[in-house]
Write a structure and sequence with these properties.
Family: Belongs to the thioesterase PaaI family.
Oligomer: single chain
Domain Thioesterase: 54-123
Distance between the termini: 20 Å
Radius of gyration: 14 Å
InterPro entries: ACOT13 (IPR039298), HotDog_dom_sf (IPR029069), Thioestr_dom (IPR006683)
Number of strands: 6
Order of helices and strands: HHEEHEEEE
Keywords: Hydrolase
Number of helices: 3
Protein name: PaaI family thioesterase
Amino acid sequence: MPLTLSLTDANRLLTEQFAPWVVDLGLTVVELDARRAVLRLPWSDRLARDGGGLSGQALMAAADTATVIAVSAARGAYGPMTTVQQSTSFQRALRDTDVLVTAAVNKLGRRMAFTDVTMTADGAQNPSATATTLYALLD
């Protein structure tokens, strides 16, 4: 029987497998299925840059983190992995809003995983940023 990653397990990964500064982003896993994870990045003035928009660094870290959760869900459990490549496109500023970060695994191999990530203001239809990620699976 294949392993399955629960929402509780996924949220536990956020505190157990990530650096303290990533934990400080306040991310939570709000949806999870076999090849997709949705994380909420809560608005914080601490993450805003000049002009009041959410910093790209925070969005990129959230996309990277969502990828780990989605790949873990696709594999049924967490295993060692590392970012090989991340390409992010910013389409509009995010101000004073939580962000839903959706990572979808589109190819899961024995050694590599490929995902697409969208970052959308809570309640919006269109993404404010998108990313593609490539991960090496280390076990």
